[in-house]
Design goal:
about 60 residues; mainly beta; about 15% strand; binds zinc ion; CCHC-type domain-containing protein
């Protein structure tokens, strides 16, 4: 995995580095994941989305 930073709010779909043709995907930091709706970027305390039911995974805090 290579992490690149682009200025602005969009990124190209592909970049060329020498002979490499790389597909670019957005990096999502899952370290802040809501335990109510399971989206990233906010906590359950600040969630405004409808909560989803899910099976508790062993690495998720309760
Ligand atoms: Zn949420």
């Amino acid at each position: 995995m290579i992490v690149l930073t682009f200025f602005g709010s969009t990124h190209p779909d592909y970049i060329h580095i020498g002979p490499l043709h790389l597909h670019i995907k957005a990096f999502i930091d899952w370290s802040l994941q809501c335990l109510g709706c399971y989206e990233s970027g906010h906590s359950k305390k600040h969630c405004t989305n409808p909560h989803r039911s899910a099976v508790a995974l062993p690495w998720m805090p309760t």
